[in-house]
Amino acid sequence: MPDSQGPLPSAASGHSAASSIFAPARRELCDEIARGHAGRTALARYTERFDVLVRQLFAAAPPPRQPVAVVAVGGYGRRQLCLYSDIDLLVLFGGRIAEAEERFLRGLLHPLWDLGLVVGHHVRDIEDFERLDVDNPEFLLALVDARPIDGSLALFEWFAAAFHTPAAHAHVVDALATLVDGRHARFNSTLYQLEPDVKDAPGALRDVMAARTIAALTDPALLWQGPEDPARLDEAEDFLLRIRSVLHLDAQRNHNVLTHALQERVADLLGYPGPRPQERVERLMGDYFRHARIVTRSLAWARRAAPVPVGANLGRTRDGIRFIDVRQAAVQPATWVGAFQAAIDANCAVSDDALACIRQHAGRFTIDDFLPTSAHRAALVRFLKPRAGLYARLSEMHDCGLLVCLFPPLKHITSRVVRDFYHKYTVDEHTLLAIRTVERLAVRAPGDRERFVSLLQDLDAPELLVLSLLLHDVGKGSGGDHAMESARMSRGTLVQVGLEPGAQELVEFLIANHLVMSQIAFRRDTEDPEIVRQFASLIAVEQRLKLMCLMTVADIDAIGPDTLTPWRAELLWRLYIDTYNHLTLGYGDDLIEGNPSGISELIANRPRDVPGAEIARFLEGLPRRYLQLFDPEAIYRHVRLSRDIHPDELHLALGQKRSAWEMTVVTLDKPFLFSNICGVLSSFGMDILRGHAMTNPNGLVLDVFQFTDRERFLELNGDAREQIFRLLEEVVSGRTSVTERLRGREQSLVHRRPARVVPVVHCDNDSSKRFTILDITADDAFGLLYRISRTISQHGCDVDLVLIATEGHKAIDVFHITKAGAKLSEPEHVALATHLQRTLEGSHEVDQEHHPAAQG
Amino acid sequence: MKLIKSIIRPHKVDDVKDALGLLNISGITVSEVRGHGKQKGHTAVYRGKEYDVTLLPKMEIEVVVPDAIVEEAIKAVVEAARTGEIGDGRVFVLPVEQTYRIRTGERDGM
Q1: Contacts of residue A523 in chain B, CB cutoff 8 Å?
Q2: Percentage of residues of chain A with pLDDT beyond 70
Q3: Which of A366, A603, A724, B48 lies at a CB distance of 3.0 to 4.6 Å from A612, suitable for a disulfide?
Q4: Cα separation of A832 and A763, whole Å?
């Protein structure tokens, strides 16, 4: 393609040049039509002449400031311009369209109009293609045949890459089906028209285009596998184009209906023999219907057999997800997991031919070939997220050998038989069935299992549960303690799949201890508080407890069909509840004091910029569970954030953690601090999912919030972080009130959605030596934490520790509070609980301004 | 012959089984059951919801023993199943008129 910055003849000379090219080209085409030869070849030649004309006009037009590409689309793109076809052009600019670009457009288009042509032009700038224009299916369809004529090739290639995605292809194929059905309906869905429209009727030119488009977007080899030889489809198209050309010439316009009156002339021009016109017409129409049947069968096959594009080289067919190009797939093992991911997304199987391809070639590759980048490793871990179809897809992966390639320790348990009284299946199948139990919980199990569903919903990273289950028994048969051996054998794999250190440690812990909970639940006296305390001490944090409980349930359930009896489930659940209550209600009493073992390790492994004394000072007086909640890297970050903190200052960090955002706030305690931070996050539309708030005896506050940003504020605003940080500082320092910002949102949101969870405020003055504990369950409504914590502060209470969790639509928040350094008296906690209950039921609004004497 | 039916804490099954084994009592039936006696359970709170723990999981052990060792067997069960706390369970002793072996149809005299 010539460069767009070529010499610039004047508009007048451009018009003259246009005429000098266009007139002879038309004459030549008319001659071909008169001979009955204006089919595919003649039209392609005419189209090429037209390309020369467009290039001339491009060169003559005033140059735009932005890069530009002129692209033929639709029939012009297919090189099938008939005598009176519309000229479908896409003019694509590399930036905003301004005066210079408009001048260019006039220079390009006016000469075409002056020639009497109907120009179907689309003018777009490149940003228009950042999102698919799903409301304009005809335009999208025209883009399928896009062909660069002149201008910036790089711009055209950018556009092509943006357009040719599996999602766009799937959408176009869907839209095309709707258009075809609608068009056919106009002809009563029969090709046997006595006066057929050779462009629109069933079996006519648009159907040829539809069949070819479906193949191009789904599987280029599709038409070769169908009932008709593609060469016969070419012949049919050529035949239809020759007729169409005659119709245009005869009508001197874009007329496509082969009327009775015109049939005789077309038969003559196309050279049909016969002594009488009637015979010649019958032969013509006989051929027409024969070709139309070929077209119809080809299109029907394409529609029936076309895979729906679901990923790069992946399509969905009736047989499941298959590789479009098997030879390409055979040498691209990094794409294989994508086939199983696509199958889960489409709720179907992976096709037998795709599995056969993987089975045949899997042994040739190393794990680095399957997981060459961190994106591939992250995708594999994401794939393990429990949802419908996971067990079936993992079974397929295992059957074709891919699972062992990805998780090599599994080869030790493939088809392994362990003879004991309980197990009913081989170890590998037991493993997969355990994952099936989790999958069933994810899609909501009925009956007794339902309570475990809530645990799964509350997991931060449920895929780690599945990963733990996948590897929990790989040490079986190795002799000795198989749980410990499984953990040891899994270590390398956890690194290879790219888990961060905290997640690695968690999965190893779960594998190594996967028998502990069942042993305690079924073989120890769980009514003994000391047994529960010891178990809680091992587990340390609620997320681990939930993971451990679910892992135990799944492991037992996968032993045999009747192993997890309601009785056993009950014992597990009781142990879970007792341990959960121990963890959530008692943790405020168990503080880091002196130099426990965890701290020594932290100090020994500290980075250079963090002195050991600084770590010890930061940790002193924080709950001991802090050491389990956060990995060493996070703790070092917190220590750095706590440096040089002064009253009214906030030290903040904000980053993405999996699907949520995580904000860490370090500051010094002051009235209404917690509610103000929650309020600011809510005022930006953030939905707080989980978090921890802690205070040490020196008044240093560490709050960690995980939240979702449904309104995509952080994504869409370049200075979003600065806005949030600025408002936090202003609100915490008292320069701005967050109440006003929240009022509008609260009014609109609180009343829009009916509550699905009845709020419950449980006040516990016994479980902790130091704190009154408020255990609050309520509908996960907008600004809930703000309203709760503000009410607490209004009662003059200090919020010392907070656990924030969300379980589906339910918010579960546990506040450890004091008033003037002591637990609340009974009248005080009754008054607070009553106020909170009314607030949560919506019958008592939070006061507009905080009480000056209140602390929190 | 007597049927000794013991409702015990789940974690005491192995201890009771071992104790009965020392008396050469090998035929034993173990069932998972739920119920309450004087203990009546208690109410736990989990995430704001009162959780009914009235019907407690227990194990039921049934053995049929000759009259001559009934007292010894009862003593073995009680000692093995005892923790000293409320909820240790109960032992019921019922007369057995006859027993038959299903495989052979033979009446068992024990």
Answers
A1: 10-11, 14
A2: 93
A3: A603
A4: 9
Quote the tokens at residue A3. Answer: 């460069």
Sheet with A320-323, strands from edge to edge, namely: A308-311, A314-317, A320-323
Say whether residue B84 is in contact with chain A using an 8 A CB cutoff: no
Q: Structural domain boundaries of chain B?
A: 2-108
Q: Are A771 and A818 in contact (CB under 8 A)?
A: yes
Nearest CA in chain A to B13: A523
At A540 the pLDDT is 85
DSSP secondary structure code for residue A257 in this structure: B
Read off the pLDDT of residues A615-637 as tens digits, 9 standing for 90 and up. Answer: 988 998 888 878 878 888 899 99
ipTM of the complex: 0.79
Q: How far is A534 from chain B (nearest CA, A)?
A: 17
SS3 (DSSP) at B108: strand
Q: Which residue, A181, A182, A188, is CA-closest to A299?
A: A181
Separation between Cα atoms, residue A431 and residue A421, nearest integer Å: 18
Taking residue A125's Cβ as centre, other Cβ atoms within 10 Å add up to 16
- Low-confidence winner among A78-87, A141-150, A236-245, A821-830 (lowest mean pLDDT): A821-830
Return the bridge partners of B3, or none: B64, B94
Confidence of residue A445 (pLDDT cuts 50, 70, 90): low
DSSP state of A847: P
Nearest Cα to Cα of residue B55 among A198, A594, A448, A788: A448
User: Is A761 at the interface with chain B, CB within 8 A?
Assistant: yes
Other CB atoms within 10 A of residue A36 CB: 18
Closest CB to A762: pick one of B48, B53, B87: B48
The CB-side HSE value for A844 (13 A sphere, CA atoms) comes to 13
Least Cα distance to A819 among A811, A809, A829 occurs for A829
Query: What is the pTM (predicted TM-score) of this model?
Result: 0.71
Residue A89's identity, in one-letter code, is L
Q: Which helix (H) or strand (E) holds A693?
A: strand A686-695
Angle A764-A766-A772 from CA coordinates, rounded to 5°? 50
* B78 contact partners, CB below 8 Å, separation of at least 6: B91
Interatomic CA distance for residues A649 and A644, integer angstroms: 9
CB contact under 8 A, A522 and B10: yes
Q: Which two tokens stand for residue A690?
A: 């989980």
Integer Cα distance of A380 and A376 in angstroms: 6
Give A309-326 as a 3 state SS string. EEECCEEEECCEEEECCH
- Kindly list the strands in the beta sheet with A660-668, ordered across the sheet, starting from the edge strand earlier in the chain: A650-657, A660-668, A700-709, A686-695, A798-807, A810-818, A772-779, A760-764
Domain B2-108 falls in which CATH fold? Alpha-Beta Plaits (3.30.70)
Q: How far is CA A525 from CA A423, A583, A775, B1, B7, in A?
A: 25, 19, 27, 32, 15
